[in-house]
């Protein structure tokens, strides 16, 4: 720390006048060294200002630096039907699903944590911007006492203002403010991503529950059919028209049907409890609401997929957050490098003081400007250099993470598109198979009761029919889940206009 006093004026006088002024100062020889140190420091500051470290390059979605594919390699499923992504849930034909999503987002700990991180980022941005401005404090004090044995009782009161300001010559403060702004935007994106994740999780659980209810309905029909067959077979066997082995087989088949039914009901109960926990709903009330449309799977509206993958990335909040993390890491690197250069701080204060002692009152104003302090980092054991190197590595890590997020985003969309295309191709064949196995079972059942077909043939056609019907239900669940995955992969209601608005806000502020 090197305080600057009137020697500053002497240091910048012409050479002859400066020499005379130095001789006139008391203690001229010691001050000569200090004066030249000040002059040298000022020259160093001027030189350093011209070599201020440059900001590291930024990588934005869709830029030439972003490793993004130029086109999709999976068929697009929308077929010309376009749907607004931000209003997608409202287009479902299931009001209960919308209610559960809204309730789940309000009570989700993930969203709450994202909100807390957003609040911390907002506070950090305010703090970093305040560091660029002068600070001002006010103080008020009073005391009463006798300073000595022969002194009268005295009362002293004072009030004043203190001012300080660190000049951001090398951009360390500005870099910190830029990093805080980028982290605020990243946190805002993270909050949206948390809401999208919660919505997708609740919707997926809800679809699984509705599919499970449909499977229960099929299992009940199958169990009832098996029980009737077992009852008829037992009566016929008792009359001697069927061998006892067929009665045992029919009873075993009925028992197996009950086992399957109980297993399916248990799975549905677990899904209801999971949904109740996710949306913080009373389980009894939730069961009543679910009972109004048991086994009815929701019908999602078809989504629009843009022709260019880079355009889709602008709809994903996690990609926007990763890009802002790169900017923040770049600003951190600039800040650590700027901290290796000198710092200049200014200070001052002004106030009023009143002293009353022995019937005599004295009051007046006191003030001071300074000191102006220059901090020259000379030796710190390599701490600043190590911090700069660590910040550079963090920047490189952020760029690697960003590139990986881009690849993951493209993969998520491609996977969802492949699943949609696959379910669309299988739907017709699965429905045809279920219909064919159902007719085959009806024919075999009629033949069995007529004594033409055996019980083994009946149970074989039954298993085929049940498996085909279960496959159709599972295919419907898989297709709806694929639409939800696509919604999640496309950013789930994070429109590109909001991203551009965030950039505009950052530019204005």
From TrEMBL:
Pfam families: OEP
Keyword Mitochondrion in record: no
Organism: Franzmannia qiaohouensis
UniProt-annotated location(s): Cell outer membrane
UniProt-recorded name of the protein: Efflux transporter outer membrane subunit
Membrane topology, as annotated: Lipid-anchor
InterPro entries reported for this sequence: MdtP/NodT-like (IPR010131), OMP_efflux (IPR003423)
Top-rank taxon, per record: Bacteria
Recorded family membership: Belongs to the outer membrane factor (OMF) (TC 1.B.17) family.
UniProtKB keywords: Lipoprotein, Membrane, Palmitate, Transmembrane, Transmembrane beta strand
């Amino acid at each position: 720390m090197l305080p600057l006093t009137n020697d500053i004026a002497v240091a910048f006088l012409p050479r002859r006048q400066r020499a005379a002024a130095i001789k006139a100062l008391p203690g001229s020889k010691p001050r000569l060294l200090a004066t030249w140190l000040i002059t040298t420091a000022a020259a160093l500051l001027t030189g350093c200002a011209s070599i201020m470290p440059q900001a590291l390059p930024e990588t934005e979605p869709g830029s030439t630096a972003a490793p993004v594919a130029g086109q999709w390699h999976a068929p697009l499923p929308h077929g010309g039907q376009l749907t607004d992504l931000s209003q997608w849930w409202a287009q479902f034909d299931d009001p209960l699903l919308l209610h559960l999503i809204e309730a789940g987002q309000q009570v989700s700990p993930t969203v709450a944590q994202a909100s807390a991180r957003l609040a911390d980022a907002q506070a950090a941005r305010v703090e970093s911007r305040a560091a660029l401005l002068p600070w001002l404090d006010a103080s008020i004090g009073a005391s009463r006492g006798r300073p000595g044995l022969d002194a009268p009782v005295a009362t002293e009161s004072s009030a004043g203002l203190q001012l300080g300001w660190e000049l951001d010559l090398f951009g360390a403060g500005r870099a910190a403010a830029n990093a805080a702004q980028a982290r605020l935007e990243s946190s805002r994106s993270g909050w949206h991503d948390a809401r999208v994740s919660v919505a997708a999780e609740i919707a997926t659980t809800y679809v699984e529950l509705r599919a499970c209810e449909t499977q229960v309905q099929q299992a009940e029909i199958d169990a009832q059919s098996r029980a009737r067959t077992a009852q008829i077979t037992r009566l016929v066997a008792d009359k001697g028209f069927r061998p006892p082995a067929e009665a045992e087989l029919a009873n075993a088949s009925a028992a197996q049907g009950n086992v399957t039914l109980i297993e399916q009901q248990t799975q549905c109960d677990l899904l209801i409890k999971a949904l109740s926990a996710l949306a913080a709903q009373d389980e009894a009330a939730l069961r009543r609401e679910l009972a109004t449309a048991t086994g009815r799977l929701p019908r999602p509206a078809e989504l629009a997929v843009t022709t260019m993958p880079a355009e889709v990335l602008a709809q994903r909040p996690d990609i926007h957050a990763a890009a802002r993390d790169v900017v923040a890491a770049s600003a951190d690197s600039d800040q650590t490098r700027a901290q290796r250069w000198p710092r200049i701080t200014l200070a001052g204060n002004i106030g009023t003081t009143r002293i009353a002692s022995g019937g005599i009152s004295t009051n007046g104003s006191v003030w001071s400007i300074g000191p102006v302090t220059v901090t020259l980092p000379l030796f710190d054991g390599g701490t600043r250099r190590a911090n700069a190197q660590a910040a550079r590595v963090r920047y490189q890590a952020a760029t690697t993470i960003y590139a990986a997020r881009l690849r993951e985003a493209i993969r998520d969309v491609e996977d969802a598109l492949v699943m949609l295309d696959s379910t669309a191709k299988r739907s017709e064949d699965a429905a045809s198979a279920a219909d064919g196995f159902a007719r085959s079972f009806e024919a075999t059942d009629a033949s069995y009761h007529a004594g033409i077909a055996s019980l083994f043939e009946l149970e074989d056609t039954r298993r085929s029919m049940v498996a085909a019907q279960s496959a159709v239900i599972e295919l419907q669940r898989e297709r709806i889940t694929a639409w939800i995955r696509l919604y999640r992969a496309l950013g789930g209601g994070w429109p590109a206009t909001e991203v551009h608005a965030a950039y505009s806000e950052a530019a204005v502020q």
